[in-house]
Amino acid sequence: CETCSEEEAKYRCPRCMKYSCSLLCVKKHKLAQSCNGVRNKTAFVSVNEFTDLNLLSDYRFLEDVGRTADAAARHPTVHSPTTKKLLYCLRNKARKCNIDLRTLPIGFTKRRENSTTFNFMEKKFYWHLKLIFPHCHAEYTLKGVPDDRTLADILKPYIDPVESDPVVCQRLRMYTMSPQSDVQILMKIENRKRNSVRYNELDASRSLLDNLKGKVIIEYPTLFVVLKTLKKDMVVLGQDTSEPAENSDGESSSLSSMEEGEIRDS
Description:
Blueprint: E1 11-12, E2 19-20, H1 23-33, H2 52-74, H3 81-96, E3 100-102, H4 109-113, E4 117-119, E5 124-133, E6 138-146, H5 151-159, H6 166-171, H7 173-176, E7 183-188, E8 199-202, H8 208-212, E9 216-218, E10 222-227, H9 256-265
Parallel strand pairs: 3-9, 5-10
Antiparallel strand pairs: 1-2, 4-5, 5-6, 7-8, 7-10
């Protein structure tokens, strides 16, 4: 058993392939590794290890994708004039703010949960926003975040040692105990190949709207709050010496990786 190292292993996790001896150790392993125990249907398999079972699994996965896409296309909301008008208006307002806002079809997880709105009286967005704290395996969803709020104000209830909620503060202790200069806010660039993931660094002192200008947003912004000293695989655009910095205004988008992840969630 890879959890207690005492008993003989009886079970193997379908997702991370860890061995366990009992239900208690299975639960401990899931909690410690943040593992959901569900097999990753799109995990890479080399040609040498590819078997008939892998082929059958891929075939069934594609069938599930086809059924999901067909169900989404038949959904009555897709053909609703009101829905189309609201989405068009939202994208148009974002375009005027120099934000490339893109929406997914009905049935995709991010489309269902997105609550972003535009207030015509105040002439500003109220964003659906997701905050991810990877070092603590925590994420929080915010609704109705005004676009004129600074990122520093948005993060205060989470990582500020004084103003944060006690329960949240305890969970994000790694962040609250670190100096503010070590905290970095990143947003994934949605239009790069899967083997070349890069992130834009955002300015905490500027408003959410200013930080989103010139960027591609799929449904709503997802911000990664990281610590510079612990950041490993998250490469910031322009800070990788092997490639030059790119201009985000000239980016072309390919949504294949986003669509694959959303289809799996649907």
